[in-house]
Amino acid sequence: MKSDQELPPELKRVAREGGTEAPFTGAYVDNHEKGMYRCAVCGTELFSSDTKFDSGTGWPSFTDPSNLEHIKLREDASHGMSRTEVVCKTCGAHLGHVFDDGPQEAGGKRYCINSVCLDFEKKEN
Ligand SMILES: [Zn+2]
To answer: Does the global pTM surpass 0.85?
Structure first.
């Protein structure tokens, strides 16, 4: 696990201070490769490319975490909105938010995750 001092400023701002990266700027917004997205701070497996979909929001979006045990959901009333925050259970990094407007055929959830909080591990064929 990386210490707070080792975190790049943008990752620190988002993961540790609950910030949000600017939409359409993240490295993984349009990534369609097969693989696993891990927590950029501690390396925990978070989301599989199998659940990634194009939401058009500008942030990587997933219908499900790879393992519900790896994340924590927390009510977030900041910025005058009632939202559900998604946090890495292992290291407590803020990852993004989950909304109920995802694809209905896949359960209706949209995990809206900041690219900067993810490390992509490409699956070799
Ligand atoms: Zn983590």
So the answer is: yes
